[in-house]
Amino acid sequence: MEGKSPIEPRLRLKPVPILVTAALGYGLPPLAAYGAFYASKIFHTPSPHGPTLQWLYMQHGFQLLVALIVIAVLRFRLAPADYCLHWPRGKTFIGAAVCWGIFFGVLMTAVDYAPQLLAHTKPDPGFPLTPSNIWGWLFFEGVYVGPTEEIPFRALLVTYLATAMPGKLYIGRFNMDWAGVIVALIFALLHIASFNSRNWPEALGQQFYAFGLGVLYAYWLEKSKSVVAPIVGHNVSDVMEYVILFAWLGAF
Question: How far apart, in Å, are the Cα atoms of 17 and each of 13, 156, 216?
Fold first, then answer.
């Protein structure tokens, strides 16, 4: 309930659920990549040695498939719960997801392209600005990435951890499951490889906004009892950055 004391109820840390959540969080993307790689060998689907975008479609598709299989196993065997794979049962938070998505899309652009903004130069997107690339990336970021990342990380991981290790975080009238905060940290640290390819201020900024987005997505999941708002927020923030990028490069 809103307004409760922040010491009630206390979170009791349980190592096993945290380790399982971390193993799933850090294991799902590479497992999906292996699945997509072997599919490319057998069925000649896009491979990691080809164009990046086509490979990302395959890897994310496998990531979603593996997550749905794990949810099915947990739901009926190990951790029965509502994994939020349905329309919101009450307040949808979709309006908030759109507004916060736009805000974070602008923030992400400022963080990711800070050197180019400061130098008044245009960034290199890493691919030719052909219509197929432009619309392929916009569809990926604006439609595809939301369900293929939010179902694994919020519907699966947050729900499992909240079920296996319940406990609330209270800050004034704000409250949410600690599980959402822990998974947000796991989600942010998945982006740690950016320290190898970016200057540290940009990479650090990416960690902060990824964590903030992870907390927001988990909050919407918990309060709406649905993965819809997290999907919408994720899609809007990501596609907003690409819309700004393509407009900046004169692609429209």
Answer: 9, 13, 22
The H or E element that residue 43 is part of is helix 15-43
Query: What's the chain's length in residues?
Result: 252
> Pick from 187, 196, 162: which is nearest to 177 by CA?
162
The C-alpha atoms of residue 166 and residue 89 are separated, in whole angstroms, by 21
Beta bridge partner(s), residue 31:
none
Yes or no: say if 221 and 227 are a contact pair by the CB < 8 Å rule.
yes
Residues 84 and 225: beta-carbon distance below 8 Å = yes
Q: Is residue 193 classed exposed, middle or buried when 0-12, 13-18 and 19+ CB atoms within 10 A define those classes?
A: exposed
Cα 143 to Cα 129: distance, rounded to the nearest angstrom: 20
* pTM score of the predicted model: 0.93
How do residues 161-197 score in pLDDT, each as one tens digit? 999 999 999 999 899 999 999 999 999 999 888 888 8
Q: Are 42 and 36 in contact (CB under 8 A)?
A: no
Which residue matches tokens 């050197």?
115
Q: Are 148 and 238 in contact (CB under 8 A)?
A: no
In sequence order, the 6+-apart residues with CB closer than 8 A to the CB of 80 are: 74, 163
Q: Which regions of the chain does DSSP assign to beta strands (E)?
A: 168-171, 174-177
